[in-house]
Structure formats: C-alpha cells, structure tokens
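Subgroup meeting minutes
Present: P.N., E.W., G.H.
Scribe: E.W.

1. P.N. recapped why we're keeping a running log of single-chain structure predictions: easier to compare across weeks, and new members can see raw inputs and outputs side by side.
2. G.H. added today's entry (74 aa).
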Amino acid sequence: MAIPKRKLSSTEEFEIMKLVIDKFLWLGFAVMAFGLYKVLNDAMQAGIYYLLAGAGILIVFLVIIVKEFEARRY
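Output recorded in log:
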C-alpha cells in the first residue's frame, strides 16, 4: 500500500526554500572569499575571476530556485 503524500503549506515550502538558498549563498560566498584571498595575496586578475565566478554562482542559483518555487506555487 502506498502512503499518501502530504502536501506542504506555502509557509513550509518557503521555509525549505530559505534553507536551500542559504546553502547556495554559502557556496557563492566561499568562492568570492577565495577570490578576495587571491586578490590580496597572489594575482589580481585570477582573484577577479573568482569573484566574478562567485557572483555568477549566486545569481544563477537564485534564478533557478526562484523559478522553481514560482512554478510549484501555481
């Protein structure tokens, strides 16, 4: 017998989305922090690339998660 799936309320969905977004924010922040370390200690150009990559990670994952949340909402 299959167990019926429980539907989450919008508040519960939002709380789960916040937890997931938080993990991606940490990933993007870590890449940007590494880029700042590279800028300060090694090469300016390599560090800038890491900073841009971290910002790109943040933007891409934010867009994906918000689109997914909006798609499931309706």
